[in-house]
């Protein structure tokens, strides 16, 4: 059984490979598809086959999936959504032409109802995969907890406040590692063909919850200061974030305030058991372990 992983040098793809190995998949049954082979030398060292494939260059994808049974297709991180659809179509066509038997794709949770622009990329990609008639599994991933819980929170601890325009909005985020474990589970088990899983938390949290956890860990009061969208945009600009990130973050925060990221599902728990508690992720990120 040959399993190919795209985005294998990335944070999600590399964790999926680790979980496959933990689940006793032989290293020589894993094919890492990367755009920069030099970054993948540690995979070569452990016996994983590394192939070059770039979503932007269909010629590099022509033979990259030869002999692959299952493909774990990591969505592109590129920030031009229209171009991302083209990149993804290149991958899907190559998988079809190579006769891949099962595509597991990293989609986006509750994509149909989402107001976040990137949801369209994921829906378009799901439809492209359906046109191939290859059995699929769509892993509709939540936003990563690490987008919000990362070492930058150290500054909030120092300042005594987490500032967002999320209001009382709640989040259904999951850590990359839990999503990677769910993906590896789907890749090694039978019976996940033609299924769509909504991989969000079964319990939500808010920035008020996060401020309380930070207060408990730091031993001092840290509040969640709720600001307006306009104020948040100014704060992010002043912090020196590039313009696309200012609009991405303030837009995601706005979606949170409107309750868009608060729906729950049991799908993740069924695949991996209880996901990592928020407290643990916060502690690790403050210690910079993640
Ligand atoms: P990541 O660490 O940025 O990894 C992205 C991977 O895609 C890297 O291996 C990168 O290769 C590869 N890649 C980039 N452009 C490529 C191209 N043209 N052709 C082939 N490979 C290419 O992202 P991640 O954390 O693993 O997340 C996986 C994906 O989830 C992202 O790509 C993005 O679509 C999506 N995402 C989801 C969330 C969420 O909250 N759910 C947040 C951010 C992103 P290099 O190592 O060579 O750069």
Write up this protein:
By secondary structure, the protein is an alpha/beta fold. It contains 12 helices and 11 strands. Helix content is 43%, strand content 16%. The strands form 3 sheets. Strands 3-2-1-4-5-6-9 form a 7-stranded parallel β-sheet, sandwiched between helices. The longest helix has 18 residues, at 81-98. The two termini are 31 Å apart. The model has no long low-confidence stretch (mean pLDDT 95). Bound molecules: NADP nicotinamide-adenine-dinucleotide phosphate.
What descriptors fit this protein?
290 residues; UDP-galactose 4-epimerase, domain 1; NmrA-type_oxidoreductase; 2 domains; 12 helices; globular; single chain; seven-stranded parallel sheet; alpha/beta; two-stranded parallel sheet; NmrA-like; Rossmann fold; NAD(P)-bd_dom_sf; binds NADP nicotinamide-adenine-dinucleotide phosphate; 43% helix
Largest sheet: 7 strands, parallel
Query: Distance N terminus to C terminus?
Result: 31 Å
Provide the β-strand percentage band: 15-25%
Spans where pLDDT lies below 50 across 5 or more residues: none
Shape descriptor reads: globular
Q: Into how many domains do the coordinates divide?
A: 2
Remind me, CATH topology of the largest domain?
Rossmann fold
Radius of gyration: 20 Å
Could you say what the CATH architecture of the largest domain is? 3-Layer(aba) Sandwich
> What's the helix count?
12
User: How many strand segments?
Assistant: 11
């Amino acid at each position: 059984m040959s399993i190919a992983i795209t985005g294998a040098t990335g944070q999600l793809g590399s964790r999926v490979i680790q979980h496959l190995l933990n689940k006793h998949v032989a290293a020589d049954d894993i094919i890492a598809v990367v755009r920069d082979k030099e970054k993948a030398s540690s995979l070569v060292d452990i016996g994983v086959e590394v192939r070059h494939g770039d979503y932007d260059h269909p010629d590099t994808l022509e033979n990259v999936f030869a002999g692959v049974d299952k493909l774990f297709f990591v969505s592109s991180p590129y920030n031009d959504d229209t171009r991302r659809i083209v990149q993804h179509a290149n991958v899907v066509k190559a998988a079809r032409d190579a006769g891949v038997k099962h595509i597991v794709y990293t989609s986006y949770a509750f994509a149909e109802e989402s107001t976040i622009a990137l949801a369209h990329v994921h829906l378009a990609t799901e439809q492209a995969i359906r046109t191939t008639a290859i059995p699929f599994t769509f892993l509709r991933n939540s936003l990563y907890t690490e987008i919000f819980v990362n070492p930058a929170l150290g500054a909030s601890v120092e300042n005594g406040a987490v500032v967002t325009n999320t209001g009382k909005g709640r989040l259904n985020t999951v850590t990359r590692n839990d999503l990677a474990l769910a993906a590896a589970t789907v890749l090694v088990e039978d019976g996940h063909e033609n299924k769509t899983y909504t991989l969000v938390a079964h319990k939500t949290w808010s920035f008020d919850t996060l401020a309380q956890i930070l207060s408990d860990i730091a031993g001092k009061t840290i509040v969640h200061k709720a600001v307006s969208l306009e104020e948040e945009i100014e704060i992010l600009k002043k912090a020196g974030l590039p313009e696309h990130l200012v609009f991405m973050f303030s837009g995601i925060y706005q979606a949170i305030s409107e309750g868009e990221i608060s729906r729950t599902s049991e799908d993740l728990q069924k695949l991996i058991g209880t996901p990592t508690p928020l407290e643990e992720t916060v502690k690790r990120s403050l210690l910079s372990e993640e």
